[in-house]
From TrEMBL:
Keywords: Oxidoreductase. This is Short-chain dehydrogenase TIC 32, chloroplastic. Transmembrane segments: none annotated. Belongs to the short-chain dehydrogenases/reductases (SDR) family. The lineage of its organism: Eukaryota, Viridiplantae, Streptophyta, Embryophyta, Tracheophyta. One of its GO terms (molecular function) is oxidoreductase activity.
Length: 334
């Protein structure tokens, strides 16, 4: 009750920001701290929260890489950003997160540019009403929201660790999750069922993929700490924003809920604020493995906090990916 009230009035939390804060507001004081060569990759930046995140981070002087499956849309976003911030450097590259081959191709192309990598924002997301399978024959929502980002992070991590060591600037990974992760039930959170479901429910698949995003952040944070790497990884809930992911869906969690909860909706500018805060705020130096909402650390579900579940999911995912890519399937020891 108290939390809902705080949300509705936009009360600031310990960070000094709250549900009403916009991405521009939370990054206003960060400009002087940003090295001109800071590079960020933002997935899903062709629309919604990702496009706003890219616009604001470019405005703050970051070099932005937009990997996209729709290059025309990405070029339009680039043009809009450069109209507003003419000096900004925006690189558009091809990536379909639902395909392991495409993720590998994107990573090779990015790494061959020889650029540093300071920030990786795993933001792209999909909500599918009906059962679809990816090119690799895995359930599409799980493949796009979780498996693709897992592989992307895995391949780019070395460059992030190197960049942080060379520059002394902490690298940051942000997994964009959702409060809906808490709808996922432990009994149904079974890896084999998630990759190849026997029965399908779109909301359940989405919730499970968003839970996997948090567990991924928690386990990778643990591994990075064990390696003393200067890279952090956190998960965020951006708030409920009427973007493409919602507009495309008529029915249960959309029309009625949105009608009743219209007061709870955030603007896109507000929806991008938690990601931007976690990406740039000096308050969060060294903070890793946490979950944020409304620009403040928040609590996630019991299942999302389960370390054993996080480690198990990481091992199962790594084994699946490497088996699919015909490479050694044993997880690296940490
Ligand atoms: N909106 C909300 O209320 C809300 C609430 C909680 C969490 N989230 C999370 O916030 C993130 C951003 O969502 P949004 O609301 O901004 O939705 P959106 O406007 O629909 O944006 C989704 C983005 O993901 C990209 N994408 C989807 N499938 C992809 C694929 N296979 N390969 C590469 N890119 C792909 C889309 O690219 P295309 O342009 O090619 O489609 C688009 O750029 C998502 O992770 C979502 O789960 C949103």
């Amino acid at each position: 009750m108290k939390g809902t009230l705080r949300y509705l009035i936009g009360a600031a939390g310990p960070s000094g920001f709250g549900s009403n804060s916009t991405a521009e507001q939370v990054t206003e004081d960060c400009s002087s701290l940003i090295s001109p060569h800071l590079t960020a990759i933002i997935t899903g930046a062709t629309s919604g929260i990702g496009a706003e995140t890219a616009r604001v981070l470019a405005k703050r002087g970051l070099r932005i890489v937009i990997p996209a499956r729709d290059l025309k849309k990405a070029a339009e976003v680039k043009e809009r950003i450069q109209k507003e911030s003419p000096k900004s450097e925006i690189i558009v590259m091809d990536l379909d997160l639902s395909s392991f081959a495409s993720v590998k191709r994107f990573c090779s192309a990015f790494l061959s540019l020889g650029l540093p990598l300071n920030i990786l924002i795993n933001n792209a997301g999909k909500f599918s009403d009906s059962l679809e399978f990816s090119e690799d024959k895995f359930e599409m929502t799980f493949a796009t929201n979780y498996l693709g980002h897992f592989l992307l992070t895995e391949i780019l991590l070395e460059r992030m660790i190197e960049t942080a060591a060379e520059t002394g600037i902490e690298g940051r990974i942000i997994n964009v999750s959702s409060i809906i992760h808490s709808w996922a039930k432990k009994e149904a959170f079974q890896f084999n069922d998630m990759v190849k479901p026997k029965s399908y429910n779109g909301t359940r698949a989405y919730a499970q993929s968003k839970l996997a995003n948090i567990l991924h952040a928690k386990e990778v944070a643990r591994q990075l700490k064990a390696m003393n790497a200067r890279v952090t990884i956190n998960a965020v809930h951006p708030g409920i924003v009427k973007t493409g992911i919602i507009r495309d869906h008529k029915g249960l969690i959309t029309d009625s809920v949105f009608f009743l909860a219209s007061k709870l909706l955030k603007s896109t500018a507000q929806g991008a604020s938690t990601t931007c805060h976690v990406a740039l705020s000096p308050q969060l130096n060294g903070t890793s493995g946490k979950y944020f909402a409304d620009c403040n650390e928040s609590s996630c579900s019991v299942l999302a906090n389960d370390e054993k579940e996080a480690r198990k999911l990481w091992k199962q995912t790594r084994t699946l990916i490497y088996k699919r890519l015909c490479q050694p399937s044993s997880p690296k020891p940490v």
